[in-house]
């Protein structure tokens, strides 16, 4: 009868409320298979998302669908999100669910006995005392319009209230616990019958008088803490507010942009124009950002314990072909003399202030240049210069890898591996056939 289906309209009502009011702590009572929670987790204004259901089997069946996905780890946001799922009865108190911004009870109350409804009212509005609550339940005034319906809409329903009965209960809750309520619903009646029968699902939106500072008239803030629910599942989503996550993402960004800047510089170095070449390119691919910066070539002598550096390029200047040849004549003989006795490593030095100015995400993640240096200092994946002012990136790493592979090819090892792999494939294929 309804498009979209009625259960989706109920969930959308909650989602729209969350978008408007931006609650940080939300709990869904009677969460069942967590379908509403799976939608709410994408609204990252929510920092704590909880669910409660008396049927732990249903919760366990679907709870892992609330786990973070790969993109949550690869591209974490600054938003925080923790999800907690409990097995327990809404007629019992649990201190972990006190003080939430929003409690939702979607098509739950009609499954309780009238005696349990009284306990539900005291627990939710007296003990949990949320800033707001959304309670939905079937409207029996609408039932005559449902084709083929005899009795209640579900075999487990203990009652189905008319609009007047729902109104009476809601106003009593407001009087006892200090709330105000707005009546609405979802599932429009056919044209001309809306006023007579109302919505198919009736909804009460409760708001605490005085907000968080409002007084709880029954159990109040002096109620003792009790823990009756069983925690079934809890997970913290990765967030850039966590230092370990922040450092991991920052290091990835720094290494990516350092390699990008190095590649740009090397392209300019090999692509000479009119006897000169620009020192490097900006992060966006344009020229000029690093052409005024000092990009050094550093030789790190690891085996002998001494460090040797040679400034290949002059800071902030264009280098002519003649000057380049002269520099190489000075540099390479020194390198060759040390090659037999020491392990040498050529590096491109990318200044941190260049990364800071050229890469907006790096500056946004670290907050300041000094903080950037501090976050990178102890990370094993990042090699800094002695003064900590630059990131060192291997200059010939790709060439060395290619040389190693060529050596393997020359030795016949790679060919042997290929033959072995091919033979094994053929055996498996024949076995499968």
Write the layout of secondary structure elements.
Blueprint: H1 6-21, E1 25-29, H2 35-40, E2 48-53, H3 56-62, H4 70-74, E3 82-87, E4 102-106, H5 114-128, E5 132-138, H6 163-177, E6 179-186, H7 194-197, E7 201-208, E8 230-236, H8 243-270, E9 296-301, E10 308-310, H9 321-339, E11 344-351, H10 352-358, H11 360-366, H12 369-377, E12 390-394, H13 397-411, H14 413-432
Parallel strand pairs: 1-2, 1-4, 2-3, 4-5
Antiparallel strand pairs: 3-8, 5-7, 6-7, 9-10, 9-11, 11-12
Description:
There is one protein chain. The protein is α/β, with parallel strands linked by helices. The protein has two domains: 6-236, Vaccinia Virus protein VP39 (Rossmann fold, 3-Layer(aba) Sandwich); 243-395, no CATH class. The chain has helices spanning 6-21, 35-40, 56-62, 70-74, 114-128, 163-177, 194-197, 243-270, 321-339, 352-358, 360-366, 369-377, 397-411, 413-432; strands at 25-29, 48-53, 82-87, 102-106, 132-138, 179-186, 201-208, 230-236, 296-301, 308-310, 344-351, 390-394. An eight-stranded mixed β-sheet has the order 6-7-5-4-1-2-3-8. The longest helix has 28 residues, at 243-270. The protein is elongated and about 85 Å long. Residues 214-220, 272-344 and 419-433 have low confidence and may be disordered.
